């Protein structure tokens, strides 16, 4: 899709020369709010800035605009110092760690940054000083009760109240407490630098009044900005008493750093300078460059008031923001997403669900909180996947391509048919007119950064496509009116390509797969530009793919999300991350104890020897398992990976001769390297009751032998047939392998063995 050449800064991949503004072209500079590097981003963070900006950047490239997308991690400030204290680490170590986490998450979500980098007049100010910690407290190291009338939120931070959104100074809080030691700080005077906003009032208001109209600012952005102006502009402190940050280059303030919300927006400029040494051509050319910025509503005043004021105050000709796109909050099930409290689905969680990235992108974008808060629920995700992606979009694409791929006499043998006078086919002409209207609506919505509307419009074309197929009953036309059927199928194939194009900004991996199935994927950037006549061609869909073109192999594009999976995810991601960890640890211990205490008899009532860890008093009513009842089979591990929530567990997919492999969770990480597990034959106990181990249900148990020093797998012969029953001919004595008192576990291909343990115990 053309994005292979783009990169996240620092990932070591090659990339083309940086783009610069081109005279006479539409040059668009796109930024998204720099995510804090002190935590893993959750879905609300992702839709609020980086994903929304990515969709618009992809759309701009699709249209042939000369666009670049700049972002990076915001690494300075109190939030980083606080996280370093929590993790007993240094701020730099925190930044290095979480920058890599952010980078990996955004790569999985198919975010196509052009550059993803890192941000690494004097007055008196009264600040809070903690005598216990012996230092001035930065804003986020203070918590107290919000002073705003009617709010009274008791956990307001020193810079902003999370509940009402009011920007604060630490000294305004009621009953302030130091976050580090919980002591009550006192007020002391300290020297700081201030941005004199009142002196910039006229220039700032002229800019806001002009650009909010020209740039079509969203209503929530206008409201937040006007609220600041209504209160009256006041001098704003731009320095802090911190060690971690950009040092103030002045001898008098050498022990201070710049306030993160003064410094962070400048990060857009500095990251661009990492992208190209000629960064000024983007940032100091307002006549030829349009600046679009994406963020959540709590970041608005810093981008509409403070950052423009900083640039206006220099007196230089800066590229000021033209359009701002602001989201409200995405809430989770019954409450709010929260990084600090670990509530919700985080970027790493989304990846672990195995639900494809394009499904997450689609759901977040259909649920984008553009005007008011929206709600994430697992049931809604299921409904949108199953009804909109699977039954509507996936169904349309698959019906069209599968029919074309049918052999001669049943279909077109994968060849796009030739057609004559398609405009004369009434239903096709009417369908094309509807598609043309939708295309115009799509472009209008996307140009105005109404991303949710753009996506909805594109999906409407798919719905119309399904109706077009059904209305024409193409399966009957194929025999009764071959010429009309050829028109319908060639037109529909063109719509498949059109959908891949229009949906590329939203679901890029979907578009790649569709193009492969059309046999049209060459790695080039899709085009939907006026210069190439793409929009005009879209209104004549029978002309999009030429006759005689051979398509690829059709495959299902989406997989159904079942009720039991939804319930599993709801339970798995309920509560906070800390709650989930405690629950998982408790489950793991419970299952481990159950496995240790299983009694195995030889069929004559004689119990097997147990490991020391499993010995001890047991209930008289506890059932024994007879050897004759054990269903042990030869299995082949076809896939193995670390358990996402447990460092000591593997999750394996094991073929035991059934129609589908069994999922098995094994506590073997400490004993068997993962590369020795892959594609290995093992002995599998298949008739244990399934047990959930840290959120994953295990449907069997891999047999291993152990002694006091080590654990080794029980290996069937290399030629043993997968699924074959393991037997115990003439068994008597302890259940051991190798020289197990002369009575080993046996297959038709020979005896099962362990590498080195003698006299061990099977478990």
UniProtKB/TrEMBL annotation:
Enzyme Commission (EC) number: 6.1.1.10
Source species, domain of life: Eukaryota
Swiss-Prot/TrEMBL keywords: Aminoacyl-tRNA synthetase, ATP-binding, Cytoplasm, Ligase, Nucleotide-binding, Protein biosynthesis, RNA-binding, tRNA-binding
Enzyme class name: ligase
GO molecular function, one term: methionine-tRNA ligase activity
Places the protein is found: Cytoplasm
Coiled coil: none
Annotated region (Disordered), positions in chain: 1-21, 602-622
Protein name: methionine--tRNA ligase
């Amino acid at each position: 899709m053309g994005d292979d050449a783009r990169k996240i800064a620092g990932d070591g991949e090659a990339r083309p020369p940086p783009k610069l503004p081109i005279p006479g072209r539409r040059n668009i500079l796109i930024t998204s709010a720099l995510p804090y590097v002190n935590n893993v981003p959750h879905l609300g963070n992702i839709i609020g800035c980086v994903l929304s900006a990515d969709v618009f950047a992809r759309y701009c490239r699709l249209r042939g605009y000369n666009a670049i997308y700049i972002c990076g991690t915001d690494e300075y400030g109190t939030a980083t110092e606080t996280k370093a204290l929590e993790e007993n680490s240094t701020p730099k170590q925190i930044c290095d760690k979480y920058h890599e986490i952010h980078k990996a998450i955004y790569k999985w979500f198919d975010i196509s940054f052009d550059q993803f980098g890192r941000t690494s007049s004097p007055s008196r100010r009264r600040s809070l000083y903690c005598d216990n910690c012996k230092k001035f407290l930065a804003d986020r190291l203070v918590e107290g009760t919000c002073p705003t009338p009617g709010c009274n939120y008791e956990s307001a931070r020193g810079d902003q109240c999370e509940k009402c959104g009011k920007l604060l100074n630490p000294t305004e809080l009621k009953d302030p407490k130091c976050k580090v030691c919980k002591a009550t700080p006192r007020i002391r005077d300290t020297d700081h630098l201030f941005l004199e906003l009142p002196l910039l009032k006229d220039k700032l208001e002229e800019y806001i009044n002009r650009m909010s109209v020209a740039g079509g600012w969203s209503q929530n952005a206008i409201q937040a900005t006007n609220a600041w102006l209504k209160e009256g502009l006041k001098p704003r402190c731009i320095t802090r008493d911190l060690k971690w940050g950009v040092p103030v280059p002045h001898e008098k303030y050498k022990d201070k750093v710049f306030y993160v919300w003064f410094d962070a927006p400048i990060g857009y400029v500095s990251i661009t300078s990492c992208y190209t040494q000629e960064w000024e051509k983007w940032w100091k050319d307002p006549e030829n460059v349009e600046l679009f910025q994406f963020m959540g509503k709590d970041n608005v005043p810093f981008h509409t008031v403070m950052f423009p004021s900083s640039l206006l105050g220099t007196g230089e000709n800066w590229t000021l923001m033209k359009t701002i796109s602001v989201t409200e909050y995405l809430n989770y099930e019954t409450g709010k997403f929260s990084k600090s409290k670990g509530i919700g689905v985080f970027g790493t969680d989304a990846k672990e669900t195995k639900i494809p990235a394009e499904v997450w992108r689609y759901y977040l974008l259909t649920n984008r909180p553009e005007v008011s808060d929206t709600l994430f629920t697992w049931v809604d995700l299921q409904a949108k996947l199953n009804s909109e992606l699977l039954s509507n979009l996936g169904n349309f694409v698959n019906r069209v391509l599968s029919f074309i791929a049918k052999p001669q006499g049943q279909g077109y043998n994968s060849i796009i048919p030739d057609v004559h006078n398609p405009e004369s086919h009434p239903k096709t002409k009417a369908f094309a007119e509807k598609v043309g209207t939708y295309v115009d609506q799509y472009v209008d919505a996307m140009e105005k950064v109404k991303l949710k509307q753009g996506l909805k419009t594109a999906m409407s074309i798919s719905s119309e496509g399904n109706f077009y197929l059904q209305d024409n009953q193409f399966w009957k036309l194929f025999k009764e009116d071959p010429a009309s059927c050829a028109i319908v199928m060639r037109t529909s194939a063109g719509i498949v390509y059109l959908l891949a194009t229009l949906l590329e900004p939203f679901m890029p991996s979907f578009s790649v797969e569709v193009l492969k199935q059309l046999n049209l994927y060459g790695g080039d950037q899709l085009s939907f530009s006026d210069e190439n006549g793409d929009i005009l061609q879209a209104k004549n869909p029978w002309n999009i793919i030429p006759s005689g073109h051979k398509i690829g192999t059709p495959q299902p594009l989406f997989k159904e999300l079942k009720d039991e999976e939804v319930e599993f995810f709801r339970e798995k991601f309920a509560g906070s991350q800390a709650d989930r960890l405690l629950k998982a640890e408790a489950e793991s211990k419970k299952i481990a104890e159950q496995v240790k205490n299983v009694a195995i008899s030889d069929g004559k009532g004689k119990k097997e020897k147990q490991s020391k860890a499993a010995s001890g008093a047991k209930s008289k009513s506890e059932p024994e398992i007879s050897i004759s009842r054990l269903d042990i089979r030869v299995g082949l591990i076809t896939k193995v990976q670390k358990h996402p929530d447990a460092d000591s567990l593997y999750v394996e997919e094991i073929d035991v001769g059934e129609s589908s492999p069994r999922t098995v969770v094994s506590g073997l990480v400490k004993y068997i390297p993962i590369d020795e597990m892959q594609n290995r034959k093992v002995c599998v106990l298949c008739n244990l009751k399934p047990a959930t181990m840290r959120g994953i249900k295990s449907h069997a148990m891999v047999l291993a032998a152990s002694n006091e020093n080590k654990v080794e797998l029980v290996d069937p012969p290399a030629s043993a047939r997968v699924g074959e029953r393991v037997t115990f001919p003439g068994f008597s004595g302890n259940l051991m392998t190798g020289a197990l008192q002369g009575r080993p576990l046996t297959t038709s291909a020979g005896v099962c063995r362990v590498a080195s343990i003698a006299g061990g115990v099977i478990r």
